[in-house]
Recover the amino acids of this structure.
C-alpha cells in the first residue's frame, strides 16, 4: 500500500519538530526509475503557496525524481522569502540525493501566513533522506497528516482485467492528506501517486487530469479552496509493463476515488458522509453544478447533522443554480434521501419520518431534474459542532 | 416606528395557532390611501413559494392595498394545493376588508414542504382584520418572527435635508424578519415598507430596487437563499407631500440599511457581526464578488467565532474569485482586521495577536485589491456552535 506499493520507489517520514505535537512532519518520496516521468495538478486558487509556485515550474517538463513534503506549515502568503525557503528545501534534498533541484517537487501543508523554521526543516530532510526505504510508504503518509485522524493510502493493480495468477502486473500506489479545506479545484490538500507502469508524460498528464476531475474535484467538504492543493503522479516504469492511456486512467481513477472517499470519511468533525447524486440533467456540468449547490448549503448540512431529512433545504439549494447553468422545471424535481422519495414533482412526497439518518453515517441524496440523461455525484459532510470547534481553534 | 409610522396605514398581529409555541403568527398591513401604489422584489431562487408566485402577479400592475403575512409555515414546495391555499387566503382577507384579492399580497415564512392549516390561518386573518389599528405596527412585526429573538422595525423621516421644526414631513416605516437563510438575491425573508409620500409606481419600483441592491443584497449570513424572500413597499400618499425619486431612494436605503443591520445583529446563533469591506477594486461588482467570497468562507467564519484573526483564510477565499470577475495581483493584497494590518502585499504584516476579536462583537475586515477605485461592503456573521445547533434542530 501507499506510495511504495509500486516498484521503483522509496519513501520515509520523520519528526522534524515543525509540529508542536512532536508527530512526524517531513516526508520524502524518491523515484528510482528507470523512468522519471511526472505529472501534477494544483489548486486553482489565485492565492497559492510558494511550494505550488515552485512545483508548477518543476513539473512543467513532465519530469521529476523526488518529492519533499512537510506538514506543520503551509508556506503560503509568505512572500519572496517563502519562495526562497521552498527553493532552498529543494536544493537541499537534491544535494543529499545527488539529483537536481529542478527535478525536486515540494509540498507544504498547515497554517497559512507563517514562515517555516528552516533549520528544523532541513535537518528533517537530511533525516528523511537517510531513512528512505522501499517499504516507507506508510511512514510518509503519516508524516503529511494535519488534522487527519488516520493516514490515507491506496494500492491498485492495473491492467485490462483480472490478471492470471502469477502473471506480471503493474501497480498504482498513493497517499493523501486533507481533512479540511476540501473543495473543488482540488479536494485534497496533498496527494502523491506512484506507478511502475511504463507511460509517457503526455499520457500520465492526461490520465491524472481525468482521474482528479472525476474524484477529488467532486469532493466538497466545506466549500473552501486551499492555497496548497497538489496532486502528483510519479512514474518509475519499473514493472517494465506498458499501460495504455485507458488502463492508466482507470487505475488512477480507482486510486483517487479510494483516497477521496477516505478524505470524506475523515473530514474535520463530520458525523455523516453525504453523497449528492444528480440524475436527469441535460449535461454533466449541469449535474455537477446542482450537486455542488446542495453540498454547499450550510442549512442542509446542519440539518443532516441533526438527522433531519430536510428536503426543503435541498430544493432551495437546487433553486439557486441559474437557468443558464442547469435546465430544470422546479415543479418536476424529485428528491430521495436514503431511498425514501420525500419530494415528488416539487412537492411533498413520502413521509420524511421514514428516513433514518441517525442510524446511518452514509447519506444518499438523489435528485432527479427530469431534464436529460446526464448524472454526477458530489460528496460532502454534515456541518457539526465539531467542525466549528476544530476550525475555530485550529491556529491557536 | 414599524409599518404604521407612516400615515395612512393600519396593521395588526395575532395568534392563529400556526406556531406550536402559541406566539403571534398572523399579521395584516392595510393601506388606507389615498394612493394604492405598491412595489416589491422577490427571491431569485428558482424554487419559490406559493405566496411569492401569487404576490408577483398581484404587484405586476404597481398597485396593492393590503398584505397578509404568516409565520409558522413557508407554504413552499407544496404544489398546486399550496398555491390554492395562498389564493384562498388573499380572497378571504379581501372579502373581510371589502377589497380585491387581486390587490392583496401574501407572504409566508417557516418550514418548507408542509401545507398550512387553513382553518387556523383563515380564522387568524379574521381576527387580525378585526384588530387593525393605526398603532399596530409593532404587533405586526412580532407576528412575523420565526427564530428572530427581537422584532425588527424602522421609521425614517424623508426629505431633502433636516426639516424646520414643525414643518410637514413624510415618513418611511418598515418591519422585517429573518434571522437565518439570509443571503443575496435578498437578505431578508420578509420585509414590509410603507410611506405616506406621494410617488408613482415607477418611482417606487426603481427606488425599492436600488435600496435593496445596496442593503439586503449585501447581507449574507449563511450563503443560503430562501424560497420566500419578499420586500414590499406600500405607498399611501397620505402626507400629501411629493417625494423626488432621489429623496425616496435615500429614505428607503436608510430604512433598509437599518433593518439589514438589525437582521445581522440577530442572526441565528451568531456571536460576531462581520463587515467585509473591499476597496481598490476595478468595479463595484468586483468588490462585491470578493467580499462575498470571504463572507461565504466557513473556515474564516469559524475562525472569527474562535476570536482568531486568521487572515490566511481571508486570502484563500479572495483567491477563489476568477480573474474574469475581479482583477488583482495576489502579491499586492492588503488585509486589515479591526484596524490592524495583518497582511501586507500578500504576505505577513503586523502581528496578528494585536487584533482583539474577543472584546468586540463587530469585526471589520478591510481588503485592498490595489486594482482601482471601487468599493463595497458585505455583512455576515461568524459560524458558531449555536448556528449549527439551531439549524440542526429547527424542524424537529
Amino acid at each position: 500500500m501507499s506510495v511504495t506499493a509500486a516498484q521503483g520507489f522509496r519513501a520515509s517520514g520523520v519528526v522534524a519538530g515543525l509540529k508542536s505535537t512532536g508527530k512526524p512532519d517531513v516526508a520524502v518520496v524518491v523515484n528510482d526509475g528507470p523512468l522519471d516521468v511526472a505529472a501534477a495538478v494544483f489548486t486553482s486558487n489565485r492565492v497559492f503557496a510558494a511550494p505550488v509556485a515552485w512545483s508548477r515550474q518543476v513539473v512543467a517538463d513532465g519530469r521529476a525524481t523526488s518529492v519533499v513534503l512537510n506538514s506543520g506549515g503551509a508556506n503560503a502568503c509568505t512572500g519572496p522569502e517563502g519562495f526562497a525557503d521552498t527553493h532552498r528545501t529543494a536544493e537541499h534534498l537534491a544535494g543529499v540525493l545527488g539529483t537536481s533541484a529542478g527535478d525536486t517537487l515540494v509540498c507544504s501543508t498547515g497554517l497559512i501566513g507563517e514562515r517555516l523554521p528552516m533549520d528544523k526543516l532541513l535537518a528533517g530532510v537530511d533525516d528523511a533522506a537517510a531513512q528512505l526505504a522501499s517499504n516507507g510508504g506508510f511512514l510518509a503518509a503519516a508524516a503529511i497528516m494535519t488534522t487527519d485522524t488516520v493516514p490515507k493510502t491506496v494500492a491498485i493493480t492495473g491492467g485490462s482485467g483480472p490478471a492470471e495468477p502469477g502473471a506480471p502486473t503493474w501497480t498504482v500506489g498513493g497517499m493523501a492528506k486533507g481533512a479540511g479545506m476540501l473543495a473543488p479545484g482540488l479536494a485534497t490538500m496533498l496527494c502523491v501517486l506512484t506507478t511502475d507502469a511504463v507511460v509517457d508524460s503526455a499520457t500520465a498528464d492526461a490520465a491524472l487530469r481525468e482521474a482528479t476531475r472525476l474524484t477529488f474535484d467532486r469532493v466538497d467538504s466545506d466549500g473552501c479552496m486551499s492555497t496548497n492543493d497538489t496532486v502528483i503522479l510519479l512514474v518509475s516504469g519499473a514493472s517494465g509493463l506498458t499501460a495504455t492511456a485507458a488502463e492508466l486512467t482507470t487505475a488512477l481513477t480507482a486510486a483517487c476515488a479510494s483516497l477521496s472517499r477516505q478524505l470524506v470519511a475523515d473530514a474535520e468533525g463530520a458525523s455523516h458522509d453525504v453523497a449528492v447524486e444528480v440524475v436527469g440533467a441535460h449535461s454533466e456540468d449541469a449535474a455537477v453544478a446542482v450537486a455542488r449547490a446542495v453540498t454547499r448549503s450550510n442549512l442542509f448540512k446542519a440539518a443532516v447533522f441533526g438527522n433531519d431529512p430536510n428536503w426543503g433545504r435541498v430544493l432551495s439549494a437546487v433553486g439557486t443554480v441559474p437557468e443558464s447553468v442547469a435546465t430544470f422545471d422546479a415543479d418536476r424535481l424529485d428528491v430521495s434521501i436514503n431511498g425514501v422519495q420525500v419530494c415528488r414533482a416539487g412537492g411533498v412526497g413520502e413521509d420524511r419520518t421514514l428516513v433514518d439518518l441517525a442510524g446511518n453515517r452514509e447519506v444518499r441524496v438523489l435528485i432527479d431534474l427530469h431534464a436529460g440523461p446526464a448524472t454526477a455525484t458530489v460528496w460532502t459532510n454534515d456541518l457539526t459542532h465539531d467542525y466549528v470547534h476544530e476550525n475555530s481553534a485550529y491556529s491557536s
